[in-house]
Structure formats: structure tokens, C-alpha cells
Design goal:
The strands form two sheets. Strands 1-3-4-11-6-9-12 form a seven-stranded antiparallel sheet. Strands 2-5-10-7-8 form a five-stranded antiparallel sheet. It is globular and about 65 Å long. The protein has two domains: about 210 residues, Jelly Rolls (Sandwich); about 100 residues, Orthogonal Bundle (Arc Repressor Mutant, subunit A). Helix 4 crosses helix 6. The two termini are about 40 Å apart. The chain contains twelve helices and twelve strands. By secondary structure, it is α+β, with helices and mostly antiparallel strands.
Length: about 325
């Protein structure tokens, strides 16, 4: 269990709707609240849209930043030995620590240790980023030859880093009210993936299989969610995009108690149902909503929808229009 001095839960923040003259002050309040030590760079246009998720033994930061300086420091006595792995999904950033400097670009990461003192990450131009912070004690036994704590760039073409990044994105988009036991399992997966990124022992690499499979399944599910509208979405296309075999995809979903095709169908039905319940989509025809969810055959859509929800699409829409918005 995490120490009580560490934050829990999650939060989201954006300056998009904040008047320009007030932005510097509002950003400074994040530091005062202990949520995010970040400062605007002088005379730079500022963009800041972030989400942060706290887990037992890990925290994830995601978002888009521009014209800001992000600082890393231990805010609790037990956090002064944490490791920080920052990843640039898009854009370029510069990390500085103890007189050293490292630039990292698209797809690359940087590893920093708070045992080496405070650090800063400069984002002078737009950067879409992910940041993972974990206690060194959680990963030290997994690392081959230990870690000297020196700042270093992690190459973007490394498969473990790509997988870790996709897993972090999936976690950030998932329900933040998961059971504590689930959060602890997810944090363990993150620890294993960090070790694979920076050099795991042979034993740790061999035992990281469950973490790799969990991360890969989450990445595939996120891929499905992003591509539901494509009627051609299939196991073969998913496998090709993920760099795995179709059989591996099937095995991942089997372990989850469902086939990949069943999962895709349920996601498509859930999207259509959600939009039929939303009065904002009332001007859209049911046919259009079905096609947007990836159904190319309206008769098939009506049949599986009724089987799933014990009501027709028209029934659901009429009920939503009758009841109105919540």
C-alpha cells in the first residue's frame, strides 16, 4: 500500500477556457496544491492540458504542453528516490539535471532518478507527453546490474517502450474508480515494463510475461476503440498493427473470457446505444449511427442490438427523447 502522504485518485486540468492574463497564476496554483510543479516559460505562448492518475506505487501524467518548464522533486520523504520516465509521443523536449542536458524527440523517452536531485523538463514547443513515476524500490530488484541513476535517453524504437506508452495511455483513459486490488496489479505491470525498458534481469524478463500480455491486450482494446467505425476491423488488421500474430490476439482475448470478434461487436453496440441515448445525436438517423459504430448491414445491426438490449434502436431513441437529458 502507498504511504498516506502520497496523492491518490486522478485529476484533469486545462487552461483552454482560462483567460490569458490569469493563466500564469492558475498554473502556479497547481504547484501550491502539490499536484504538479510546473511554470510557464517567460515570453512563451502557453498550452497546458493534462491528466494525472495515481496508483499504489506509480503515477501517470499525460497531456499536451507548450511553453512550460516541468520540475521533478520528491514531495514526500519516501519519494526522494523515485524514478521518472518521460516519453514524447510527439514533439521535442529537453531534460536537465545536475548540469547535464538531454534532448529527446518523437517516440523517445528520458529516464531520471530523484536520487540525483531535482530535474526539469523544458517544453518550449508543443509536445504530447506521457510521464511515469515509480519508487526505485519497486523496480530495483528487477534491474540487471542495478541503475546508476544518471539521466539517459531511452530509444524510441524499443518495443518495450512502445508497449509501455500504449499501456499508460490505456490506463489514463480507463475508469479511475477501479478496485484497489486492480490498481495494485496494474502498478505491478508498470514496474515490470519499466524494467524491460531500462534493462531487466533475465529472471525478471522471463517473469514479465503476464505484464506484457496485459499491456498488449490493453493496447489492442484501445486500437479497437479508435477504429470502431472501420467496417474492415478484424483480428488480422489488429495483429498487423500491433506486430503480433492473429493467433496471439486470439489467445489474449481467450484469457479475458471473450473472443476478439465478440469484444468488437459489444463495443460497437455500446457505442451505438450510447449515442441513441444521447439527445445531442437526435438529429442523426439511426442508420448513420449504426454505420458510425462500424455496422455495414442495418438488418444485422437491428437484430444484434435487440438481442443485446431487449429493445429496438427506435425504442431506445424514443425513450431518450421522452425522458430528455439528465
Amino acid at each position: 500500500m502507498p504511504p498516506p502522504t502520497r496523492p491518490t485518485g486522478s485529476f484533469r486540468f486545462s487552461i483552454a477556457d482560462i483567460p490569458v492574463p490569469q493563466r500564469h497564476r492558475v498554473i502556479g496554483s497547481l504547484r501550491e496544491r502539490g499536484l504538479l510543479p510546473i511554470e510557464p516559460l517567460q515570453d512563451d505562448a502557453v498550452t497546458l492540458s493534462i491528466a494525472k492518475r495515481f496508483l499504489p506505487g506509480a503515477s501517470i501524467l499525460s497531456g499536451t504542453l507548450c511553453g512550460v518548464r516541468q520540475e521533478g522533486a520528491g514531495q514526500a520523504s519516501d519519494a526522494k528516490d523515485d524514478l521518472f520516465l518521460g516519453v514524447n509521443l510527439m514533439g521535442r523536449s529537453v531534460a536537465r539535471q545536475r548540469g547535464r542536458e538531454a534532448a529527446f524527440g518523437d517516440g523517445e523517452g528520458v529516464l531520471l532518478s530523484l536520487a540525483e536531485g531535482c530535474f526539469t523538463c523544458l517544453r518550449p514547443t508543443p509536445a504530447k507527453i506521457l510521464g511515469l513515476r515509480v519508487p526505485r524500490t519497486a523496480v530495483a530488484s528487477l534491474l540487471a546490474g542495478g541503475d546508476d541513476g544518471r539521466m539517459r535517453v531511452v530509444e524510441g524504437n524499443l518495443a518495450p517502450l512502445k508497449l509501455l506508452a500504449s499501456y499508460m495511455r490505456a490506463i489514463g483513459e480507463a475508469d479511475a474508480d477501479a478496485a484497489p486490488e486492480t490498481d495494485m496489479i496494474v502498478a505491478g505491470h508498470l514496474h515490470d515494463l519499466v524494467a524491460l525498458c531500462i534493462g531487466a534481469t533475465r529472471q525478471a524478463a522471463a517473469s514479465a510475461g503476464p505484464s506484457v500480455r496485459a499491456a498488449r491486450l490493453a493496447a489492442i482494446k484501445a486500437d479497437i476503440a479508435a477504429g470502431l467505425a472501420a467496417g474492415s476491423l478484424s483480428v488480422a488488421t489488429l495483429a498487423a498493427r500491433q506486430g503480433v500474430t492473429p493467433r496471439y490476439v486470439h489467445k489474449l482475448f481467450e484469457s479475458d473470457g471473450v473472443t476478439c470478434s465478440q469484444f468488437i461487436l459489444r463495443q460497437r453496440l455500446a457505442r451505438a446505444h450510447h449515442r441513441l441515448c444521447d439527445v445531442r445525436f437526435a438529429p442523426r438517423s439511426i442508420t448513420s449511427i449504426a454505420y458510425d459504430a462500424g455496422f455495414s448491414d442495418l438488418s444485422y445491426f437491428n437484430r444484434v442490438f435487440r438481442r443485446q438490449y431487449n429493445a429496438t434502436p427506435s425504442d431506445i431513441r424514443n425513450r431518450a427523447l421522452r425522458d430528455g437529458p439528465d
